[in-house]
Amino acid sequence: MSSSSSIRKLAFLLGDQLDMNYLDSLGLDQDQDLICMSEVADASENPPSHVQRTVLFLSAMRHFAEQLKDDGWNVSYTTLTDQDNTQNFENKLERYINDSNPEEVVMIEPGSHSVIESIERACESCGVDLDMIEDPHFLCTHDEFNEWASGRKQLTMEYFYREQRKKHDILMDDGEPEGGEWNYDKQNRKSFKSEPDAPDVPRFKPDKVTKSVLKDIQSELPDLPGNSDGFGWAVTREQALECLDDFVSNRLPRFGDYQDAMWSGKSSLYHSLLAPALNLKLLNPREVCQAAVDAYESGDAPINAVEGFIRQIIGWREFIRGVYWFEDTDYADRNELEQYGSLPEFYWDAETDMACIKDAISSVINHAYGHHIERLMITGNFALIAGVEPQQVDAWYRGMYADAIDWVTTPNTIGMAMHADGGVVGTKPYAASGNYVKKMSNHCKGCRFDVKKKVGEDACPFNTFYWDFLIRNEKRFKENHRMSLILKHLDKFSKDDRVELTVHAQELRDEMGIGEIDKD
Ligand code: SF4
């Protein structure tokens, strides 16, 4: 397109903005406007992105662009292999602006501070107006969240969630929560007594488009982490709807009971695995909630399952997004517990004797997936108690999971998993010993470590690090009343016990390549 052409609006659509309704939101017109989409290497390299996450984004983008073209839109799409030396969003957009000379650039607000900054820089350097509108995908607007959060000492998800339930009239009965309770988590902590027979999740064989993406990634980004074999994520809205239907029919009924349970070699269990499709905007949270509510109303799924699932969507997901935008942009850099250890190599290759970590990380490497308890209580908990630097953990989570995007991953990692935000997201750290893993999984049975031991060559590292974590942070947590009962256990430790634990924890850290926790 030459610079003499008269483009009214240049709409720059990102890989996580694949909703046809956005065209209306942006006020686009087929005769006057241009939609630009671009694959940029930078989005897969900083931080290193799992190959399946990259395939998912790029294949979904290419399918979406094809659909746009079929529908008659004027689309300019650049792939990874277009050699124009513009491999980040800023340079790509500058190029599009210079090529098409639009009256203005319009965008849905990206889900990352750094991407917004690069878009703004591009428009400023080209001297073109930018109209960035808030993402209508979400139920809670920035203003609503800010109003709710402002002036509160503590941002408690549960209170936010109840307001969302009332406001959107979801699972409400005449102003009261359906079934009489806001939250049925007491029923949702079952573990498996024997191998679960959870149904397989739908997987989609790579079609022509996905195969072309795989080929381009092989040539342009050959060093991405993770395994691309068996890629089967939904890359179109039709496939995403099939996944929603399959979840509601086959797994939602037992989702509540077993949402915190783990079993080796089985990561999906009764989970929805809908987050990638939701976060790419192939699905809308309203339709997802409606499908779950319909299952409850028709008697196909119990209240504890449906409420627990709805809470994930309109509670936790919206809450965590609210936190991302409400907090200052330095949120990602916070390190309240002052931990500076290195991320161990086994986060990249699963080469460890710890059966629980091996299983959780193998699932990530093979599927770019782990369910929320594997993320929080295995990989997250381990990094927390072992003393790994939160920013290294955040970079790993942002790259390695198919559903990872800054707005959702950073507060979940920095706040929820690493307790590095000073208690904004959680009132106490999610730190646990091997006992939790033993209770909720079968991992410990097949592990070379002894889950009953705290020190010694065969002691469970989760135990060593857990007690070391409490000892290291004893003074800091003393003021936290939710930690007082837990800290009381330290009274049973003699001075020698403490020294023995501390020394063993550092030996383990050195062995695992975590090194020293302190900065200097
Ligand atoms: Fe994990 Fe410890 Fe259990 Fe091994 S013994 S599986 S390291 S919790």
Notes on the structure:
The protein has 23 helices and 7 strands. It has 3 domains: 125 residues, Rossmann fold (3-Layer(aba) Sandwich), CATH 3.40.50; 136 residues, Alpha Horseshoe (Serine Threonine Protein Phosphatase 5, Tetratricopeptide repeat), CATH 1.25.40.80; 181 residues, DNA Cyclobutane Dipyrimidine Photolyase, subunit A, domain 3 (Orthogonal Bundle), CATH 1.10.579.10. β4, α5 and β5 form a beta-alpha-beta unit. It has a 5-stranded parallel β-sheet with strand order 3-2-1-4-5, with helices on both faces. A two-stranded antiparallel ribbon has the order 6-7. With 520 residues, it is mainly α. It binds iron/sulfur cluster. Iron/sulfur cluster binds next to α15, α19 and α20.
Describe how the helices and strands are arranged.
Elements: E1 9-13, H1 21-25, E2 34-38, H2 42-45, H3 51-70, E3 75-78, H4 89-100, E4 104-108, H5 113-126, E5 129-133, H6 142-149, H7 157-168, E6 172-173, E7 176-177, H8 208-220, H9 237-250, H10 252-255, H11 275-279, H12 285-297, H13 303-326, H14 346-349, H15 355-367, H16 372-386, H17 390-400, H18 406-417, H19 434-440, H20 461-472, H21 474-478, H22 484-488, H23 495-512
Parallel strand pairs: 1-2, 1-4, 2-3, 4-5
Antiparallel strand pairs: 6-7
Helix pairs in contact: 3-8, 4-5, 6-13, 7-13, 9-12, 12-13, 13-18, 15-16, 16-20, 17-18, 20-23
The structure holds iron/sulfur cluster.
